[in-house]
Amino acid sequence: MFPQIVVTFSEFQKMEQMCRILLEKLDSSVHVGAPQFFHSAASLSQLRLHACVAAVENAQQKASKISQLLGESLGSPLLVREEETKEWRNEEEAAGREHSSTALPLLPHIPTATASSQVSVSFSFRDKSKKKL
């Protein structure tokens, strides 16, 4: 039984470069397996934050259009509340693990993660008749 070494890279290009060097220098004495990709906790947290910010921006755009229809001017937000956050990963990631015993080598794929955020935002209206100083 040969020893197995697992290395974690944060940059795809560096991983490719290291694999090429190992294969060039060690020839058939080394086996480089297919890379396995994952999302770090920090990147998932950042993804959730971006989803929430995008939801708040979307709420502000909608409220602004509604205030224009009512002949009002949109004021400051009074309350911002995140109601729900969802996160999911692509289905290929799970399917790739299920079919890993096939005779044909699977090409590595970069997994994707998606997040959505539902927010509730209350805005004030400003009186358009008051002149700005």
UniProtKB/TrEMBL annotation:
Localized where?
Cytoplasm; Nucleus
Q: Name one Pfam family in it.
A: SIMPL
Q: Where is this region: Disordered?
A: 83-104
Key word DNA damage present: no
**What keywords does the record list, in alphabetical order?**
Cytoplasm, Nucleus
Q: Where is the composition biased (Basic and acidic residues)?
A: 83-100
| InterPro entries on file | IRAK1BP1 (IPR030312), SIMPL/DUF541 (IPR007497)
* Family as reported in the entry's similarity comment: Belongs to the IRAK1BP1 family.
The record ties this protein, via PANTHER family, to: INTERLEUKIN-1 RECEPTOR-ASSOCIATED KINASE 1-BINDING PROTEIN 1
Task: Identify this protein by name.
Answer: Uncharacterized protein
- Species source reads Xenotaenia resolanae
